[in-house]
Amino acid sequence: MVTARKEIRVRYAETDMMGITYHANYFVWFETARIHLLKTLGISYRELEKAGYLLPVIECHARFHKPVTFDDITVVEARLKELEGVRFKIEYFVTCEGVRVTTGYTVHAFMDLSGQVTRPPSEFVQAVKSKTLEC
Fold it and tell me: Which single residue of 89, 121, 123, 132 could bond 82 by disulfide (Cβ 3.0 to 4.6 Å)?
């Protein structure tokens, strides 16, 4: 399993009228952690796109356990759980002061620039395998 952590401070603009982080912002945080996870694998999302690969979200889920508010510091942990053919799943665990506040996941598929499903590049598969073996 490949894991990466990203610290995120809640910005005022990310809260709603109740002072709680608006739910859709968690998916932005998931993306931030996902990009960081790819970097820990030695893979640049920008370079994947330049090489003709896209990684659309084909499924997403979040469960909110406790609210976070402006200026709270959260840690988003992203775990690449499954790499099956052209799809992979990343699980997310958001904590604040060591307390779990949100969990979720996204599922992605490799696509080419014309929107057709395609096999992941061998560099991606090798990076995932080598990091998984290290853990």
Answer: 89
